[in-house]
Amino acid sequence: QVQLVESGGGLVQPGGSLRVSCAASGFTFSTYDMTWVRQAPGKGLEWVSSLRTGSDFTYYSDSVKGRFTISRDNAKNTLYLQMNSLKPDDTALYYCVRGRWAMDLWGKGTLVTVSS
Prior knowledge:
Layout: E1 3-7, E2 10-12, E3 18-25, E4 34-39, E5 45-51, E6 58-60, E7 68-73, E8 78-83, E9 92-98, E10 105-106, E11 110-114
């Protein structure tokens, strides 16, 4: 079954860290660019970060640059997003997405809540 399944979300205090993961199955994960997109409560979708396949090129939105790190483990078919120095504005449902321009497969998301 072709799917993306996110995990690792939860409640974290401001200034804390969290790593969310995305397990891919049913396709050749290593050949695809991958992306994280988030949606804050009551707001639209916001692109967070992308990672190009076959290279170390990574891309970040200005809102997370310097705090978040995207990475992948092709042997485990898993995408990661390490989030440090979290802020309340980072509270959102985080989606793992296949692709960087044509995003054709989405996970169901994992909820990250930043609150004291």
